[in-house]
Design a protein that fits this description.
Elements lengths: L12 H9 L6 E5 L2 E5 L3 H13 L1 H7 L1 E4 L3 E3 L4 E3 L3 E5 H4 L12 E5 L5 H14 L4 E6 L4 E9 L2 E10 L4 E3 L5 E3 L5
Parallel strand pairs: 7-8
Antiparallel strand pairs: 1-2, 3-6, 4-5, 6-7, 8-9, 9-10, 11-12
Length: 184
């Protein structure tokens, strides 16, 4: 007779799921509307994120911020995002685990063939709901950039764009930077 496996009670499935994805060896994953989604950006994808980081580097230094692709938690939902870039103050980034979208100054998502609709619809809605002040969508399939600002419970109330690649995209204060999108 074999022993029955020990069953573990999960009092909070959201916490259990978010804990589990943080302990996957090797790959980075996010949760989008309850679906576990591996994060494996292409070189072109990474090039766009790197270009944006380089263009805002001066503003990052002046603001005392860092830009990276760290985890963003959306408590009370089945979402755990790994954006292409999230700009956060040094004080929040140092030693931090997951942050909240409202703790960012800017979130950037760069679409891929596999996640374009997620970035255009689900993430835009959730970033607004969780008060990310600025959301820049770089749509590689449509070859456009759109900046969303003024988050609210029903979405972003200000939309700047859609700008075709090659047209400059102005990031408002506190950045006051004009992005060159010609190389995207």
């Amino acid at each position: 007779m074999t022993a029955e496996p020990e069953l573990y009670a999960v009092g909070d499935p959201e916490t259990a799921l978010k804990y589990a994805i943080q302990h996957i060896r090797g790959d980075r994953v996010q949760i989008v509307e309850g679906v576990i989604d591996p994060v494996a950006p292409s070189r072109d994808h990474e090039f766009v994120a790197s270009s944006i980081r380089e263009q805002i580097a001066g503003a990052l230094r002046e603001l005392g911020c860092v830009a990276g692709s760290g985890n963003l938690d959306l408590p009370g939902s089945s979402n755990w995002y790994v954006p292409d870039l999230a700009v956060v103050p040094h004080g929040l980034a140092k030693g931090a685990g997951a942050l909240l979208p409202e703790q960012t100054l800017l979130v950037v998502e760069v679409t891929s063939e596999s996640n374009g609709e997620t970035d255009r619809i689900a993430k835009r809605r959730r970033y607004a709901e969780y008060r990310a002040p600025l959301y820049l969508l770089v749509d590689r399939q449509e070859r456009t950039c759109t900046l969303f600002a003024e988050p609210g419970p029903l979405g972003y109330t200000e939309v700047r764009g859609t700008h075709p690649f090659g047209a400059p995209v102005r990031l408002p204060g506190p950045f006051d930077v004009e992005l060159d999108t010609g190389g995207f």
